[in-house]
Amino acid sequence: MLSKGSALPNGISAQLSRGHALAAKQKTLQLLNQSLSDIDNVDPEVILTAILLSINYELVSSGKDDWKVHVEGAQKLIDYFGLSRHSDLGTHSAMGALRDHVVSDCLIYYILGSTFSPKLPRTGAIHYPPLDALPMLERAEANSYMSCPAFLLQIMLSASHLSSLDKVTTLEEEQAFYLMKRAQSFGIHAWAASVQGISSYNDFDSRVHVATAHKSAVCLYIHRAVPSASLLDKSSIKATINDIIWHLSFILPGNLLLKGTSWPTFIAGAESHDPEQRAWVVARLHALWEILPWGYVHTAIEMLRTTWAAEDLATELTGGWLQRLKALGNDWIVV
Q1: Could you tell me the pLDDT band of residue 234, with boundaries at 50, 70 and 90?
Q2: Which end of the chain is more exposed for a tag (fewer CB within 10 A), N or C?
Q3: Separation of alpha carbons 124 and 113, rounded Å
Q4: Number of H helices, E strands in the chain
Q5: Helix H segments across 249-294?
Q6: Is the dihedral of CA 234, 239, 243, 249 positive or negative?
Q7: What is the distance between the alpha carbons of residues 292 and 285, in angstroms, rounded to a whole number?
Q8: What does the DSSP 8-state code read for residue 89?
Q9: Considering the entire predicted model, what is its pTM?
Q10: How confident is the prediction for the chain on average, in pLDDT?
Q11: pLDDT tens-digit map of 258-314
């Protein structure tokens, strides 16, 4: 029998922790259901924070499927309360800052989740975060570990919408071309300088590298979102993959922004046919797992292996890896 204060074996301790986590999850869902039954008399920031914790729980677990219902619920609440708009809380108040951070995280998960989902999120008439959500995302981006400019997030969402269409016309191809030009012309150094002015860390160079990797990854994503537009040729694709890997190679373990690099890492891996680059991407994700042991990281590796197996066996490359991944019907997310 263990004496008072003695340590539990690791296996038993892990089981107890998992049991506590599951109990907390169940309690959270029960309280959310109670709150939603009287939605006009609850604090929207509190209920969104609870939903955000539920999303994070699913990301810790695996990053498959179950996260989506929470993200869609958060998006509906944000729209219902009008939380993406400027409010009487004030941008610089404590509650205003909380609102910006919570709502921006929910919207970022919504955007990232849309990039690999087989179809648009089931939000009824809501297909995008409102256009006026962009200023709120911009106010919160200095404290976002992702270090992806809000401007690029907006482009990412538009491209994900195009990738989910059953039929692509000349109009959609023109839209993809327009999105590509907007992404390519975005000034990373000017953005990093503006964020640096309100950041508490001297991380200008790191933000440039991470944001540039996101920019290049977004360009590759737009290309795959509307493959019939043929926006990038083979040499451009190869150069863009190299650019992502080169910039990410500067973000080493111990860098606070490392945990925000999984999405561009995944895109570079999905696009590459080079065995050395693929091995680098897997090693990179394993290194991320060492500091951030969340299940979505292993799910990203699983997604890559599935993508590579399909690409290496494919005889007809029309469409590409993104369409094949979406065709599997799984709700994946890489954050």
Answers
A1: very high
A2: N
A3: 17
A4: 14, 0
A5: 262-271, 275-291
A6: positive
A7: 10
A8: T
A9: 0.88
A10: 83
A11: 989 999 999 999 999 999 999 999 999 999 999 888 999 999 999 999 999 988 776
Give the whole-angstrom CA distance, residue 251 versus residue 6.
40
Sheet strands (E) in the chain? none
Three-class SS of residue 332?
strand
250, amino acid identity: F
The three state secondary structure string of 85-118 is: CCCCCCCCCHHHHHHHHHHHHHHHHHHHHHHHCC
- The amino acid at residue 225 is A
Backbone φ, ψ for residue 60 (5° rounding)? -65, -40
Contact present, 54 and 106 (Cβ < 8 Å): no
SS3 42: coil
The token pair that represents 11 in the structure block: 């296996």
Token pair of 79, please? 């729209």
Which tokens belong to 70? 């929470």
Q: Is residue 86 predicted with pLDDT exceeding 60?
A: no
8-state DSSP, 331: -
**Which residues are registered as beta bridge partners of 332?**
64
Specify the DSSP element, H or E, that contains 33: helix 10-36
Pair of tokens at residue 222: 């737009």
Task: Decide: 109 and 335 in contact? Cβ < 8 Å.
Answer: yes
Question: Is the sign of the CA dihedral 116, 121, 122, 127 positive or negative?
Answer: negative
In this model, does residue 8 exceed pLDDT 50? no
Can you tell me the distance from the alpha carbon of 269 to that of 332, in angstroms, rounded to the nearest whole number? 16
Both tokens of residue 241? Answer: 């993959």
What distance in Å separates the CA atoms of residue 65 and residue 72, rounded to the nearest whole number?
12
CA 198 to chain centre: 23
Copy the structure tokens of residue 121: 């999120």
Looking at this protein, which amino acid is placed at residue 147?
S
Q: What is the DSSP string of 240-254?
A: HHHHHHHHHTT--TT
pLDDT in tens, 108-155: 888 899 999 886 544 433 444 544 567 777 777 766 667 899 999 999
Query: Which residue matches tokens 């709502």?
Result: 103
Q: Are 147 and 211 spatial neighbours (Cβ–Cβ below 8 Å)?
A: yes
Residue with tokens 């990797």: 213
